[in-house]
Amino acid sequence: MNSFLDGILYCVDSERFCQIRSAANSFAVNYVGNNIIQDDIFSLIENYARTKEMPLEWIRLPIDDQELCACTFIRGGRIFIMINTRLPYAKQIFAAAHELYHIWCYLEDNDTELVRTGSILDAYTIDTGTAKAEEMEANAFAGTLLVSSDGLNQQIRIYQINCSDLQVDEILTLMDIFAIPYKAMVLRLFEENKISYEKAADLVEISEEYLQKRISVTGKAKRWSFAPVGTERLGSIIENLSENTENERLPDSRLNSDNLKLEKIMERYGIK
Predict the structure, then answer these.
(1) Do 103 and 38 have their domain in common?
(2) What is the C-alpha to C-alpha distance for residues 72 and 107, in angstroms, rounded to an integer?
(3) Over the stretch 219-229, which tens digit does the pLDDT of each residue have?
(4) Model confidence, pTM
(5) Does residue 93 sit in the same domain as residue 163?
(6) Residue 124, domain extent
(7) Which pLDDT band, with edges at 50, 70 and 90, does 117 fall under?
């Protein structure tokens, strides 16, 4: 038995997993097409909200707390998504896709939970698992959206990957293609019956030190394994402040005060 595998939606409730996978596939038909998403997830989410006529703002900041991956909340009729840019890029991408599920539930099913309490995603939920049903569903949605069944089958065929004797380096190859964390990639292989429960259990126990060594040696998935610089965003603050200044919409004293606050925020988080 493996507590991580036993706690995923595919094992806990296979019927619900199939429903979530179907929902992710339907979403992809309308908003993704045949593309592999990777870091397009950010513009994809923004476009989805736009088609629903729901304003959305990204707050992407290098938060010191490595346990905080992302959070989503609604204020003043706007969706705000915060992503911790100190995380490896693959985890940022997965976190964004996870938060998309909560937004999708709100916009498609009128689920008011996002309005009432918001959503906070911690590293534990991605790395170790969760007992919360909606968080399980969000993880399953993120995984099946970022790595679709057809997309996985296609790449396995193109790269001639032998799933009956799957090695860590071949998983890194798939990680490089789909830009998702290691355990998430193992889960997608397991969920699509490419590997057995026993094989998946062995693979998820591989140490982080060994993974990083193989990434360094092979170069596979390296671009997704570190936190890139220059991806920070502060929603519409800079844009609004610029417009207010250019159009003289506010007194000079207010503009100076707002600029000073912005400078302090950017200094605090090392944004240039």
Answers:
(1) yes
(2) 13
(3) 999 999 999 98
(4) 0.89
(5) yes
(6) 3-224
(7) confident
